[in-house]
């Protein structure tokens, strides 16, 4: 929605019936593609987009190709249902994108822009309704064909409810330092199930994936071809570490483009680690 009525428009015109399959994946997948979805449990147009995100691995877009993050915004909360995952920090992130005026639409200048739900952003450069599956798959393929400016590897040690992450960022060639690259780390619930009692989705039980619970600040990268950054994050009290995904990514403060993404695997009861994040080696 565009903070009001846009959800009805999106429900009418979005391609919710499109069928995305693994056939849409290009053969030359050169990077992990970050897909962000701005969503809300109070928005009746959002569940199909959340379902699409949840189905990505089954459609052939596993975490070695596409890493999704869903950000629950809070401006729907006043309309009858308080989303338990909504966070004003995520609403600010969506507004940060809107202020940049750098996002393009698959429809050109006539396409949707600004703040609405369900808004999907592919690798920080393209925005579209999260219900437009075929268009989203095409944009993921286009993003995957571009080499990432950075490789990321990371390790995380758990200390109670806190994780301390060491992220190593290595530039590939000249990453254009004037674009002001920043490191961001997200802590996301692998999956969530919520019975919605009020609002536009009253009576529905929503199944969601990659639900961001904690997001770091945008941390400037130290100068040089290689940098090591330490980040500490706290998990929510209602979430076990076994239910959490950790994602590190580099993003330009100027263009909003994603410079590299890495997803950490749980390698022990108190440890997470990742392989090279431009494209996982198999």
Description:
- There is one protein chain.
- The protein is α+β, with helices and mostly antiparallel strands and 282 residues long.
- 15% of the residues lie in helices and 36% in strands.
- The protein is built from four helices and 13 strands.
- The chain is globular, with a radius of gyration of 18 Å.
- Residues 1-26 have low confidence and may be disordered.
Report the C-alpha radius of gyration, rounded: 18 Å
Q: Strand-residue fraction?
A: 35-45%
Output the structural class: alpha+beta
For the secondary structure, the number of strands is 13
Instruction: Estimate the mean pLDDT confidence.
Output: 89
The first-to-last residue Cα distance is 40 Å
Low-confidence stretches: 1-26
Provide the helix percentage: 10-25%
User: How many individual helices?
Assistant: 4
Written as H for each helix and E for each strand, in order along the chain, the element string is: HEHEHEEHEEEEEEEEE
Largest sheet: 9 strands, antiparallel
Shape: globular
Helix-strand layout with pairing:
Layout: H1 6-13, E1 33-39, H2 46-55, E2 66-72, H3 88-100, E3 119-122, E4 126-129, H4 133-144, E5 150-159, E6 162-171, E7 181-195, E8 205-215, E9 219-220, E10 226-234, E11 244-252, E12 258-268, E13 271-273
Parallel strand pairs: 1-2
Antiparallel strand pairs: 1-3, 3-4, 5-6, 5-13, 6-10, 7-8, 7-9, 7-11, 11-12, 12-13
């Amino acid at each position: 929605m565009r903070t009001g009525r846009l959800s009805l428009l999106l429900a009418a015109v979005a391609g919710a019936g499109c069928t995305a399959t693994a056939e849409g994946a290009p053969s030359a997948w050169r990077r992990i593609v970050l897909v962000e979805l701005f969503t809300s449990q109070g928005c009746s147009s959002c569940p199909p987009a959340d379902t699409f995100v949840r189905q990505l691995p089954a459609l052939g877009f596993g975490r070695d190709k596409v890493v999704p993050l869903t950000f629950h915004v809070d401006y729907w909360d006043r309309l009858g249902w308080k989303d338990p995952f909504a966070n004003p920090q995520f609403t600010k992130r969506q507004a940060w994108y809107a202020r940049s005026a750098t996002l393009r639409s698959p429809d050109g200048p006539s396409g949707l822009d600004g703040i609405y739900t369900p808004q999907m952003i592919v690798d920080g450069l393209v925005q579209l309704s999260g219900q437009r599956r075929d268009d989203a798959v095409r944009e993921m393929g286009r993003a995957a064909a571009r080499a990432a400016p950075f490789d990321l590897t990371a390790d995380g040690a758990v200390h109670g409810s806190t994780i301390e992450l060491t992220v190593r960022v290595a530039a590939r060639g000249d990453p254009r330092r004037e674009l002001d690259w920043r490191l961001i780390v997200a802590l996301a619930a692998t999956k969530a199930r919520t019975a919605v009692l009020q609002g536009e989705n009253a009576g529905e039980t929503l199944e969601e994936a990659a639900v961001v619970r904690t997001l770091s600040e945008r941390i400037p990268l130290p100068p040089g071809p290689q940098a090591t950054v330490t980040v500490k994050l706290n998990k929510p009290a209602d979430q076990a570490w076994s239910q959490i995904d950790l994602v590190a990514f580099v993003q330009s403060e100027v263009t909003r483009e994603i410079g590299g993404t890495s997803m950490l695997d749980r390698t022990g009861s108190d440890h997470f680690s990742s392989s090279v994040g431009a494209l996982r080696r198999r």
